[in-house]
Every structure is written in C-alpha cells, then in structure tokens.
Records
---
Amino acid sequence: MRIPRVGIGGPVGCGKTRLIERLVPVLAQRGYRCFIISNDVVSKEDAERMRRILSVEERIIPEDMIVGIATGGCPHTAVREDPTINLAVIDEIERKDPSLDLIIIESGGDNTMTTFSPALADYFIYIIDVAGGDKYPRKRGLGIETCDLLVVNKVDLAPHVGADLAAMKRDAGRVRPGKPVEFVNCKTGRGVESVARHIIDGLLFDRKRVPVQKRRKRN
C-alpha cells in the first residue's frame, strides 16, 4: 500500500524544518500519523532538531519516525533526478508500518528550481520567505510555478525588509494562476492550520480519521 507523500522544498533558511515542526502537531491532533524524512547535503542536523522538538519535548511522534538522509550532493538531486535513496527508505517504512497516514519529505535547501519527482511526492509544497524581498514570486522558477501549494513564510519581517505582501500575492497569482498561496509565520503558527487543511483536502481526503483516543480504544 502506498502511503501518501508530501514533499517540502525551498531555499536554505526559508523555514522548511520549522513548518514541519508546526504542521505535524496540527495533523496529529486530527488523528493523522506522520513519518518524516529530512534530506540535507552533509549533515542530519535538521532531523536531529525535529527529534528533539517533536519527540523529546512535545512527544508528538516517536524518535524513530524521523529519519535524516545526508545526500552528499546537489540538494535537489535526491528528490528529483535520482530519488532512489529516499524511495528505499519509504519502501522500508511502508513494509514496517502500512497504517501510517502521511510521509513528509523535506528537501535540502536549494534555489527556486527545486521540484520533486512524481515517483517520490504526491503533493508538493514550496516555501519562500519575505526576508529575501518581495521579488521572489515574480522571479518564477520551477518550484514556485509548479508546486501544489506556495507558502510565503516570515510575514512578520515584511515591514523590516521593505517587502510588499500585497505585491507578492498579486505576482504569485500571475505566475501560478488558480493555484493556492498561503502567507504564514512559522514562529507564531499563523497560517499553519490553513497549510494543514490544504494537505488534508488535497492529499488525505480519502483517509478519514477518528480522534486518537477513540482509535486506541477500538484497537
């Protein structure tokens, strides 16, 4: 059985890891069980951070439900051109625990050309942040144009860097007509519920869940 997979990509420092840390508790509250794969070039620091926060501090998911992969090469290669290493991990996960509801795959930080192979991800979220200015959407790039959901993070920084959020929304609508854009602040959690709703409606719509307490009693 293929477990639904969502890929999250974006430049270094845009907030991919923090978005996952915010999303997983929201999904868990709704009864969805998640597994996380975090890709990076030479380290597994992001995976270790998520274990510390989601497993040790918040006790949302077990530590062994978060795996770090050091790709050792171009950040997007392991999620686009040759996703073999990620597919191998997923194959093992699906054999061990087919009852999982979602696998979240975090790409290593890269530029606006990041995309996910359709063999790896069923739903693609691309995240940018306003710290780089409001030019991001109109500069286009495969990630921005083709993702299922564009997330603009760190909206609280807009006044400090002179970014026009209205212009970003307008430009995003022009380069990706008809596709959703969410403005969030992962630090405070603003907009995260909406991102979770996009995942549920766009990918998990056929996997109805019951509250965790009821599910445990029934089992």
Note: The first strand starts at residue 5 and ends at 9.
---
Amino acid sequence: MLIDDELMSYLEDLSCLSLTAEEKRRIAVDLQKILEYMERLERLDTDGVPERSHPFDNVNVFRDDKIGTPLDRALILKNAPDSDGVMFIAPKTVE
C-alpha cells in the first residue's frame, strides 16, 4: 500500500488534525514502515501455533470465594466520622 498525499489528507481530515507538510512527510514515512512490518508478519508461518490472548500461561491466582461470617456493621460504623446507622456519611465530592 502506498501512502500518498491523497491518503494523508484523508487521514488528516479523519483525525481532525491540521498537519504541516513536514509532519505529513514524517507520518507518511512512519505509516509506510508500519505497513511494511505488517506485511512481514503476514508472511510468518503460524500453522500449528495455538491462538493466544496473552503470551504467558498465567491462570487465575485469586482465592476462591467462600461464604463467611459478615462483618459487624455497628462495629465498623463506630469508626466512621459520621453515619446514619446503616451507611457512612461523607461530604459531597462531585457537584
């Protein structure tokens, strides 16, 4: 794919940018390099390579959810600067 002036103008309009001639030239060179690299990647033989969403074989390391005794609400609210007996009362932070 060739990155020409017409494509650069289209991308400039699409991105709502106003680029100088030098910026357009530099970006065109960068885009051409990116496309060439993508073409190289397309030529790779990936037969037999499993699809992956992550390069590592990590598994979920979280603990299992277990039902336990609920915390004592009165004891927790005792530490609050202000409460209504059910919830914390905090100053409004968003208007």
Note: The chain has three helices and no strands.
